[in-house]
Design brief:
alpha/beta; single chain; Nucleotidyltransferase, domain 5; 3 domains; binds adenosine-5'-diphosphate; six-stranded mixed β-sheet; five-stranded mixed β-sheet; binds calcium ion
């Protein structure tokens, strides 16, 4: 009988132990859940901002970027928050009235002030990068270009931001930063991507210059065209070239200059739709170093009349590309060295606008389909085209030329073929951020792309605590189970021993 009482007592204690362990377990789980919920409560994010003004030849755009301060050196964390299109032409057009260049930026800078929290204004860096329009102005009149930049700087300094100055970006940098932007936004710098050639090339068509940038599959013969970057622990040897004057606005001027003019000052233009006519003032039109005054300047005003003839248009556009000599193993045009194009490309800015107009910006559209679409548009009478497309008259009237120009630049110039055409993706944005050189430029100026991969961060306090609690809990449970089963075995052994004794 006493033994039976002893057995009841020990099983009572065992039950107590199980209940206590279960209660303890519940308490610990509850504490863990509370800690986790508190830790993960959304805290105000530590957002940082940066502004880049893209002072292009035809217009200025303002881009606001944002990122989390603690993640600034990680891959793919900077995103576009906002953008603003400055009204009016590019800053280089204000060369005769430089104060206006700064003032033209007022609305967009005010918008930036509204978009960024006031307490962040003082630490928000602002960069202004001017491209081919200012390069051309500098080559014509460097002191005027300097004055213009100073006037723009003085105006931006009146804003509460951390202004880092206005610079004329070199053609090589414009190409390289466009390439960085595209690959950064596509996440191509991440280490776990397969293969050594995971990056995509960048093709940028502006109004006054155009850039081609890519990592070739062999040696780069010309040092002038080679750029080296070490990003996130990997080396990139890039080929880049910027063709000044081969942006689509300057190219149109070079093309017009090559057309013959009749005795009464009429120019028949096969790259304008039939029925389209416009007058141009010769001294206002041929002002850039790309188009010195043509020999036929006896006329002050020219009457340009569209004839909409694709065949003739192509022939004339080809004349602005000099294919006659190449001192390297391979060239694009004008004797410029270029390795053969390979891999994928992102084509941005006017490449995109033009292809979008022809509805040819989709994937898997063949080169022949693009040619057919351009020819079809060029043979459309101007009145019909105006009725069909409700876009700015300037763009519409130039699109026959632009379509042919893009095709000739990419195919005859850069040597893309029917089979490599589909490697070009015409793009404006990547995941909500504009694909242009500005983001790459800011990442570089703020040292946000490290040469080496950022080291993995140590565990946060919360994670450390959670791991410690979980491990303690597991050890506790494990020892309880061991003790419990140990007790049961000891009881059983005692019983067997006693039985043996009896
Ligand atoms: N909606 C549009 N349709 C066609 N072309 C456009 C459109 N918007 C902008 N563009 C063209 O894109 C080009 C942008 O060039 P821009 O960046 O100003 O010059 P650059 O880069 O040479 O300094 C210009 O030729 C402009 O006319
Ligand atoms: Ca541009």
């Amino acid at each position: 009988m006493p033994e039976a009482r002893g057995g009841t007592k020990s099983s009572h204690w065992r039950r107590c132990l199980v209940v206590i362990t279960a209660v303890l377990l519940l308490v610990v789980i509850a504490v863990l859940v509370i800690v986790a919920v508190r830790q993960n409560r959304p805290t105000p994010p530590n957002l940082k901002f940066g502004i880049v003004l893209d002072a292009g030849s035809s217009h200025t755009g303002l881009f606001i970027y944002q990122w989390l301060a603690e993640k600034m050196n990680d891959t793919g964390v900077v995103r576009q928050r906002d953008s603003c299109s400055v009204k009016g032409p590019g800053i280089s057009s204000y060369w005769a009235d430089v104060e206006q260049a700064g003032l033209s930026l007022r609305d967009c800078l005010n918008e930036a002030k509204r978009s960024i929290p006031v307490e962040q204004h003082r630490e928000t860096p602002v960069f202004l990068g001017a491209t081919a329009g200012m390069r051309l102005l500098r080559s014509q009149n460097s002191s005027q270009a300097e004055k213009l930049l100073q006037a723009v700087e003085a105006f931006i300094h009146s804003y509460p931001f951390d202004f880092q100055g206005a610079q004329i970006v070199t053609g090589a940098d414009e190409g390289a930063f466009g390439w960085i932007t595209i690959n950064y936004l596509m996440g191509n710098f991440l280490q776990d991507m397969a293969g050594p050639h995971e990056t995509v090339g960048a093709l940028d068509l502006g109004g006054a210059s155009t850039q081609i940038t890519f990592v070739p599959d062999g040696e780069i013969e010309s040092l002038d065209n080679s750029m080296h970057f070490r990003l996130y622990g990997k080396n990139y040897e890039m080929y880049t070239h910027s063709y000044l004057c081969y942006g689509k606005d300057q190219a149109l001027k070079m093309f017009l200059q090559k057309l013959g003019v009749s005795a009464n000052g009429t120019v028949f233009n096969p790259c304008f739709n039939e029925g389209y006519e416009k007058s141009i003032n010769v001294s206002n039109f041929f002002t850039s170093p790309c188009t010195p005054m043509p020999p036929w300047t006896t006329h002050q005003t020219l009457r340009v009349i569209g004839t909409g003839n694709s065949h003739q248009c192509r022939d004339h556009v080809r004349q602005i590309f000099n294919q006659s000599s190449c001192a390297w193993n391979q060239c694009s045009f004008n004797g410029v060295y270029q390795p053969h194009v390979w891999g994928k490309y992102g084509a941005i800015s006017a490449f995109y606008f033009v292809m979008k107009f022809f509805n040819m910006d989709k994937e898997k559209v063949s080169l022949d389909e693009v040619k057919v679409a351009v020819d079809k548009f060029c043979s459309t009478p101007w009145d019909q085209a105006k009725n069909e497309y409700k876009i700015k008259e300037k763009y519409l009237s130039e699109n026959c030329f632009s379509g042919h120009y893009v095709l000739i630049l990419l195919v005859d110039g850069y040597n893309f073929t029917s089979s490599t055409w589909n490697n070009i993706q015409f793009m404006k944005k990547i995941g909500g951020s504009d694909a242009g050189w500005t983001l790459g430029y800011m990442l570089n100026r703020t040292n946000m792309i490290p040469a080496e991969l950022p080291r993995p961060k140590p565990m946060s306090k919360a994670s450390y605590l959670s791991v410690m609690i979980i491990f303690s809990l597991l050890s506790f449970c494990w020892s309880s189970v061991c003790l419990y089963s140990g007790g049961r075995f000891a009881d059983r052994d005692r019983r067997i021993w006693r039985r043996d004794l009896i």
